Automatic annotation (TrEMBL):
UniProt name for this protein: GMC family oxidoreductase N-terminal domain-containing protein
Keyword Flavoprotein: yes
Pfam family of the protein (one): GMC_oxred_C
Cofactor(s) of this protein: FAD
Similarity section: Belongs to the GMC oxidoreductase family.
Limits of the Glucose-methanol-choline oxidoreductase N-terminal domain: 250-264
InterPro entries associated with the record: FAD/NAD-bd_sf, GMC_OxRdtase, GMC_OxRdtase_N, GMC_OxRtase_C
Protein residues bound to FAD: 98-101
GO MF: flavin adenine dinucleotide binding; oxidoreductase activity, acting on CH-OH group of donors
UniProt KW keywords: FAD, Flavoprotein
Length: 508
């Protein structure tokens, strides 16, 4: 029987970081319901050459066969560069090719969501959902090697304390062992491998290789079906859901789908001849991302071997010391030049990179339809460094990385600064270097934001405003990014989103 035949109670669109958790939770709580999970990508075989091996992360992240191939429009703030906006297309979504870093994010950021009207989303409310995810995803805390020991020594005189566990401490400020979603056996954990796996839930039908193209609404603006294309046969199908359709297509895919379905800014839809189902000006607006900047130093001696995709330490601090210790907006990750995929010339391999990742940036971008063809990528304009204060924070990041790299605590390692290099000294020179080299952290969020204001796309219950039986449950609902990477927050959103669906179910 075709996986599309018969009626489904729930259809989940996208088997990524959020979609797999949502599907597993609903399938387990509702054993008598029929649930369908649709995904454009395929399963990753157990013998895949790179995906499961954490040390090969850089190669995985660059593997075009695993992803959608999005690019931004030319970024004025980045010297006109077009930025590759990687997004996985696979069962497991971006958990298949991300750096596996696990950071819940500071409590302050979630509390702000609640203060802005998202009742039920303050840190105390959401903590049980992080814990639920952590019961199923194994977190490996990195082992401390000799370089990291010296890094801790280097941070001390800079006023950066040692924080043993940034996720469970009251605040993340400090230098810590990094935490990764890596199994006890040393393999990548994905939301698909840990929550689903093929055939584990009898009431869940997983259809990979299927692109969803549009939500179908009835005259009452109820979401009743999904129009989709089987990518293997190009057959078009319409699949019906009797209860709810749950969009989990990520911060690019979810606004794209809503716009194609007539949910979005009225003028944009009318210009393309798309009938307006719900005029929501916020769909595709409020695009947020973190940027990283780079410092690189040659090492005097061989770097320790690296069993992870990044080095095993992280530094959280702030561009504004008055916000410490509770609010951090810089997360420095590190890499060794010996790591596979960096492809450095032999004389540069014994080296270390410090990558300050600037968070809570103020610039906001957009995602708009290029056409009504679902196969055509949307126009993505992150507007990096559009907000003037963002460049100042990136300059702070480069100076911080330099201060760490040159610090006496790392004297046994430091040989020479390669990047930005001795010629880059004044703020104007650092700014030019940033505009030439800063890059995305792939932490896209906010394009279907949750809230109670006019720009909100979903309510705090994640229901799409002006429609019925339709929710968005993924990174796109994040109203303002938090201090941290986005995967943990997205998985938490999925766990809580499933509870919201189940609560509605009990009340009907
Ligand atoms: C290279 C890279 C490295 C990263 N590293 C980290 C890290 O180390 N730690 C961290 O916390 N975060 C990291 N992130 C970010 C993090 O992985 C994402 O924020 C998170 O996975 C987003 O989850 P999601 O469920 O919202 O979207 P996704 O995981 O992208 O899931 C969306 C799914 O929907 C599918 N889909 C979309 N549109 C359609 C369509 N029309 N038809 C069918 N299927 C569709 C996609 O194929 C995908 O599987 C990284 C991201 C990238 C790209």
């Amino acid at each position: 029987m075709s996986p599309f035949e018969g009626a489904f109670d729930y259809i989940i669109l996208g088997a990524g970081s959020a979609g797999c958790i949502l599907a597993a939770t609903l399938a387990e709580a509702l054993p008598d319901d029929r649930i369908l999970l649709l995904e454009a990508g395929d399963d990753i075989p157990p013998h895949h050459e790179t995906v499961w091996d954490p040390t090969r992360w850089v190669l995985v992240s660059r593997d075009r066969t695993l992803e959608w191939g999005y690019r931004s429009v030319a970024q004025t703030g980045l010297h006109g560069r077009e930025i590759q906006l990687r997004r996985a297309k696979a069962l497991g979504g971006c958990s298949v090719h991300n750096a596996m870093v696990y950071v819940r994010g500071g409590a302050y950021g979630f509390d702000r969501w609640a203060q802005e009207g998202c009742v039920g989303w303050n840190y105390d409310n959401i903590l049980p959902y992080f814990e639920r995810v952590e019961e199923r995803m194994h977190i490996t805390q990195a082992a401390v090697d000799p370089f990291i020991e010296d890094l801790v020594v280097a941070c001390n005189p800079m006023g950066i304390p040692y924080t043993p566990n940034y996720n469970t401490s009251p605040h993340a400020f400090g230098v810590s062992p990094f935490q990764f979603l890596i199994s006890q056996g040393g393999q990548r954990e994905t939301t698909f491998s840990n929550f689903l796996g093929t055939g584990r839930h009898k009431n869940l039908h997983i259809a990979s290789g299927v692109r969803f193209d549009r939500i179908v609404f009835d005259g009452e603006r109820r979401a009743v079906a999904v129009a989709a294309t089987d990518l293997r046969t190009q057959r078009q199908v319409e699949i019906h859901a009797s209860r709810e359709i749950l969009i989990a297509a990520g911060a690019i895919g979810s606004p794209h789908l809503l716009l194609l379905s007539g949910v979005g800014p009225e003028n944009q839809l009318r210009d393309l001849g798309i009938p307006v189902v719900s005029a929501l000006p916020g769909v595709g607006e409020n695009f947020q991302d973190d940027l990283f900047v780079t410092a690189m130093f040659l090492s005097r001696k061989p770097m320790p071997p690296q069993p992870y995709g990044l080095m095993g330490a992280v530094i959280f601090t702030s561009t504004d010391p008055s916000t410490l210790p509770y609010l951090t907006d810089v997360e420095c990750s590190l890499a060794s030049g010996t790591m596979e995929g960096l492809e450095l010339p032999p004389d540069k391999r014994q080296s270390y990179f410090i990558y300050p990742n600037l968070q809570l940036l103020r610039s906001r971008g957009t995602i708009k339809l290029a056409s009504t063809n679902p196969a055509e990528h949307p126009i993505i304009d992150p507007r990096y460094l559009n907000a003037p204060e963002d460049i100042q924070r990136c300059i702070f990041g480069v100076k911080l990385a330099r201060d760490i790299g040159h610090n006496r605590g790392l004297a046994d390692w430091f040989a020479e600064e390669i990047l930005p290099g001795p010629r880059v000294q004044t703020d104007a020179e650092i700014e030019a270097y940033i505009r030439q080299t800063a890059d995305t952290c792939y932490h896209y969020a906010g394009t279907c934001k949750m809230g109670v204001d006019d720009m909100a796309v979903v309510t705090p219950n994640l229901e799409v405003r002006g429609t019925e039986r339709l929710r968005v449950v993924d990174a796109s609902i994040i109203p303002t990014t938090v201090s941290g990477n986005t995967a943990a927050a997205t998985m938490m959103i999925a766990a809580k989103g499933a509870d919201l669906v189940l609560a509605s179910r009990r009340s009907t």
